[in-house]
Design a protein that fits this description.
heterodimer, A: about 500 residues, alpha+beta, four-stranded antiparallel beta sheet, 15 helices, 20 strands, about 25% strand, B: about 300 residues, mainly alpha, two-stranded antiparallel ribbon, 14 helices
């Protein structure tokens, strides 16, 4: 009896007390925390940033976004040749391997793209099918893509589609969408050791990794934990339970850095904020915003510099274009509307609104910034009723053409090309609901720039389009955003110019 | 008694059905599930593809009836967010919530019963006031705040407990205290009032005249009678713990049903939210039913 009793007590004690040893430099284990949970491993079935980060760690595409100059560079591809406006030949690295040790060949690439376009359940199917005419194997390590029309944002898609081993997702008509959700045979710099959905994913460096533009990771083991509460993440960081967390607001980050136990970096992000104005009059009769002077007045009324500096913080800056100035094609020599409330009042009076008018302004994030804008607009006579709520409510109202003005933002995560923001915001109103300009010329120029591979021609079209948008004040471009990261003193992490956290480049100090 | 139980069961099922309808229509009205699944910066094509893929473009009524008929065939649906059957999610997550609920009720018992006894034995004294103060404070403090304070003190300043996670029973200590504290006032007050009533009852006077005094009198005679209503309240509190663990599980990163509920709501995972609301409601109603039956058993007047 006493033996049984002591056995039970021993068992209870071992259950009660964890071995409280934190992962760190001594065992070459880096721990990061995400607020949003990783529900599966296959990037093709997730669209959020966290899935892209994990995807870049365990998977690779044909191309990659270079961290220094934000250009697309070959990844599994070794080099490429643009044959004509609709044909591109790609050679593959001969040393690229899947985690199971097999070589990546043209068959795998052809299979992957066919799987994406022929499997309608795949979330990227429609997008890729939109431009891809065909893919064919031209050699053991070479493929040819043919597109339906010249498509400039091609490299972004070639980056986002991760290469799958031939046959691993099933066969046509019998696709297995869940094949790689919980275990993944990828090609990235890390391999999955274990995955507990919503809790953590444990990775180990892939010593057979081909290197490529991501480089060979310096840290051997990585654990990504899902910790929903930011306060808990901070406590874990202070206690040594994690080394890295992101999406940290300026005030919190600075307060944490003052403790001396963590570094805080506030870097640029590709996200930009803007007001979309119903210049086309989609929301019905009697809309003052259809008048150019009113839209220009709104551009002059908002103190972008002050809001960017005081409410957004960090490297956030006022922008004057309908894109982030750091991305390709974001031509900056456009009409700029400086903060000028008196000028705004005069423009309103000229447009026939000397006493201003009432306006419902919709927003879904950064409520303080939205309130500040409402206040600025109020100072020139535009009495704003701020309708701040869920993004889905805004989307619904926009779809029903009930919106005259809304405060939108766009992240363009790891997509350093104006095409990413312009494609969705300036497309033909029959194919989307965000282009409220009512001006077919904007659509022609901004989407026209996507339909040629000629870099100079693209730049010229974007320049014309962005000038037109600014001249006609179809938007009130607001500011770029910033990305805040808290990291342990033991690691060396630098925020890249696009704010996209490349965890595989972290090193120990 | 059987008729009483049958009547209560009908009420439980009616509430469950009403809840499922209200939840389904509210969720679909308030959020755009396609947008929520795709994320903030998803492309138009991706959102529309999700809308078609999951059938969100069909009417809400049709989708509700499909879901409802599935339930009767034992199909709880597939989670959009986790790409898994909802039933397997429930099975995976339930042990953490059950552990947390049982441990937090234990915390409630350990704090509230002694406090209630002390307060009853010393009515209107300093001890009574301190006990009442503790109870009121525990009720007034929000769970998330108490959770963070506990982490600051017992995981950072005095690093005894882990900050978050659920790998060992040790990880459940702080969250159990946080979750258990909120039930302390109700149980403690009931204990105090019940014991005060019993102490003044005739049979206690008789026991006293037979030579029973002090703690012996309290434990052997008074407490047994005073505890009966407390047990039924504890049953209700246990039901509360299952459904009330959303914030606590999120603060302490415990991978239980409460956190699943929050993740599913934020991810617009309608099949999972539907089932969770239903399950939480049924658990809550079940424990209420248990309390009703217990009370009816003890007091036959309630069966009428």
């Amino acid at each position: 009896m006493s033996k049984l009793k002591s056995l039970i007590i021993t068992l209870l004690i071992s259950l009660m007390f964890p071995i409280n040893v934190f992962a760190d430099k001594s065992d070459d284990t880096f721990v990061a925390a995400f607020s949003r949970e990783l529900t599966q491993l296959d990037y093709h079935y997730g669209t959020k940033t966290e899935f892209l980060i994990l995807g870049d760690m365990i998977d690779s595409g044909l191309f990659y976004v270079n961290r220094e100059d934000l250009s697309y560079v070959p990844d599994i591809a070794s080099d490429y040749k643009i044959v004509d406006d609709t044909t591109i030949d790609i050679n593959l690295r001969k040393n690229a391997k899947f985690h199971d040790g097999s070589n990546v060949t043209a068959d795998d690439v052809v299979y992957t793209y066919n799987f994406i376009v022929k499997n309608e359940k795949n979330r990227r199917s429609k997008k890729i099918k939109g431009w891809m005419e065909s893919i064919e194997k031209t050699g053991k390590h070479s493929v040819r893509f043919k597109s339906k029309y010249p498509y400039a944002n091609l490299f972004n898609d070639l980056y986002r589609i991760k290469i799958r081993k031939n046959g691993i997702m099933g066969t046509e008509g019998n696709w297995n969408d869940s094949a790689q959700l919980n275990e993944l045979n990828g090609t990235g710099p890390y391999k999955v050791v274990s995955f507990d959905p919503g809790v953590e994913v444990v990775l180990v460096r892939n010593d057979d990794y081909y290197g490529g533009p991501k480089g060979m990771p310096a840290i051997k083991n990585v654990i990504i934990r899902s910790i929903p509460d930011m306060g808990t993440q901070q406590a874990e960081l202070m206690s040594g339970g994690i080394h890295w967390m992101y999406n940290v607001k300026k005030d919190i980050g600075e307060a944490m850095a003052k403790t001396g136990k963590a570094d805080y970096q506030l870097g640029p992000s590709l996200r930009v904020g803007f007001l979309v104005l119903d210049a086309g009059g989609y929301s019905g009769e009697g809309n003052p915003i259809t008048k150019l002077d009113v839209r220009r007045a709104m551009n002059h009324a908002i103190n972008r510099d002050s809001i960017a500096k005081n409410l957004i913080g960090g490297p956030a800056k006022a922008v004057h274009t309908a894109c982030n100035p750091v991305v390709f094609g974001c031509f900056q020599d456009v009409k700029k509307y400086e903060y000028n409330p008196e000028g705004a009042k005069k423009l309103l009076a000229k447009a026939g609104y000397p006493n201003g008018f009432d306006l419902d302004l919709w927003s879904y994030r950064d409520k303080e910034a939205a309130q500040a804008m409402a206040e600025d607009l109020g100072k020139v006579g535009i009495k704003v009723n701020l309708k701040h709520g869920k993004l889905s409510a805004l989307n619904k109202a926009r779809k029903n053409r009930e919106i005259r003005a809304y405060f939108g933002t766009w992240g363009s995560t790891a997509s350093p090309d104006t095409a990413t923001i312009s494609n969705i915001h300036w497309r033909d109103p029959a194919k989307g609901d965000r282009n409220l300009s009512g001006d077919p010329k904007v659509n022609e120029l901004m989407l026209g720039a996507e339909q040629t591979l000629d870099v100079e021609k693209r730049k010229s079209l974007y320049a014309q389009g962005l000038k037109l948008i600014a001249d006609q004040a179809y938007w009130v471009p607001l500011w770029s955003y910033s990305e805040g990261v808290l990291s342990s003193k033991s690691i060396d992490f630098k925020l890249d110019p696009d704010g996209y956290p490349r965890l595989w480049n972290i090193t120990w100090k | 008694m059987l008729r009483f139980i049958a009547g209560r069961l009908i009420v439980v099922l009616s509430v469950g059905l009403t809840l499922s309808i209200v939840t389904f229509f509210l969720l679909n009205y308030v959020i755009d599930p396609a947008q929520a699944i795709a994320g903030e910066d998803a492309l138009f094509e991706e959102i529309e593809q999700i809308r078609e893929q999951y059938g969100f473009d069909r009417s809400i009524t049709i989708r509700y009836f499909e879901w409802f008929s599935g339930i009767f065939q034992g199909d709880l649906g597939i989670s959009y967010y986790w790409n898994k059957p909802v039933i397997s999610l429930l099975i995976d997550r339930a042990p953490e919530t059950i552990t947390l609920a049982l441990m937090s009720v234990s915390v409630t018992i350990l704090i509230s019963i002694p406090l209630g006894i002390l307060a009853a034995l010393n009515p209107n004294s300093l001890i009574d006031r301190i006990a009442l103060g503790i109870a009121v404070t525990a009720q007034a403090v929000p769970n998330f705040w108490l959770g963070l304070i506990m982490i600051l003190i017992f995981a950072l300043a005095i690093p005894i407990f882990p900050v978050s996670g659920d790998k060992t029973l040790f990880h459940f200590v702080l969250p159990s205290i946080v979750l258990g504290a909120s039930s302390v006032p109700a149980v403690m007050r009931l204990m105090r009032t019940g014991l005060l009533d019993v102490i003044n009852a005739d049979f206690i006077r008789t026991a006293r005249s037979s030579g029973f005094y002090g703690w012996r009198l309290v434990f052997n005679h008074a407490l047994r009678n005073a505890l009966l209503p407390v047990v039924s309240v504890l049953a209700v509190q246990l039901g509360n713990k299952f459904g009330g663990s959303v914030i606590t599980e999120s603060v302490f990163a415990i991978n239980g049903l409460g956190r699943l509920a929050l993740e599913s709501i934020l991810g617009a995972d309608i099949p999972t939210v539907q089932i969770l609301v239903f399950v939480f409601a049924i658990i809550f109603l079940f424990f209420n039913l248990l309390a009703d039956i217990l009370n009816a058993y003890l007091d036959p007047r309630l069966r009428l």
